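Morning!

This is the sequence you dropped in the shared folder:
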Amino acid sequence: MTPKKYAFIDALRGIAFLGVLACHVSFKSKGLDERVLALLANCDKGVQLFFILSALTLFLSLDSRKDESSRPELNFFLRRFFRIAPLFYFGILFYGIVASSVRVGASATTLSGMIATLLFIHGWSPYWINHIVPGGWSIAVEMTFYLFVPRLYRALNSLKRSIVFAIVACGLAVGIHYVGEYALAQTSMAPIVRRSFLRWWLPNQLPAFALGFVLYHVLRRRTDQGDTSNFARAICGTVIAACAFVGLTLTGVDDMSLLEIPLFGAVLCLFAYSLALFPLRAFVNPLVCHLGKVSFSCYIVHFAVLRTVDRLLPSLGRPEIRFVALSGLALAGTAAAATLTYHLIEVPGQALGRRVITGLERQTNRTRAGVAYGTLSHGA
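The structure's back. Tokens below.
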């Protein structure tokens, strides 16, 4: 059974990408007010919103595919590989060729780093975690997380268990951070490399995924989506989430705080729950939903688009004007390019994955039928 699609989830993905884009545009917008820059910098929590939504949708997907195949775990991994790998490999090829002009924050390409990135294990090395593909650290985290999802789905079968897991995940993130900080401090590694790695790797991001599991169980208990009686609660939740986001920014809960992901993650879960209660048109609309639909492509291509637009856009006087112009042009260019890569790479890749799964299922069924026939013949 194909998992049910929810418009509010697509919209949240679109909003997550808009946050990431705003953050990256702010890096190229010198002269903005410091408080505005701090708020824009925290819009990078769009990545954590992606992680929350990933955990939510994977559990929903596993729900819809219960008992439909002979090898559910293998099929799960195949679906995830063909969902991620085709476009990510395109990113490796693209950014590897034009690395000198569009790469952002990645180190020089090496053969070992290339192999690690191809195998999705680059997330376990401080030097490879953001290697070749800008923002590739999040893909490494996501792909590693997939290895645990089927078992977590069986284990976290209640809201209570999911909450306990979220608490444990937060504790593990803090404990592993201090152990990692101590171990890496004994090396000659540059402090910025060490801090970036400890911020990006999976143990530090685990609370975001854990909160996604909590959100999954909370949503299972909610009333029907779109119920007009939930409109006021959706507005209230959205306002509270926005105020909390700004408040966390202004109080200094930034990217150097171990509380950053749990606190911002909880705020993002509240916002997601609000849109699930009632899909407010300001957020859940065709444009934002389309961005969400192609959000993976948007994430991969926007680094190149933004760098290109930034180089071509002249100074416009006030930094606020240039920020708006740069954001608009980068968004338009990214949406256009991402729509192309979605249809040319992502959709065919997912279709290939489905064909592989179908072929394996047919082979398994034929083998079982042959065994059954042989057993019956022997018995006769």
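Headline: Residues 42 and 136 are 19 Å apart (CA to CA).

More detail when I'm at my desk.
O.
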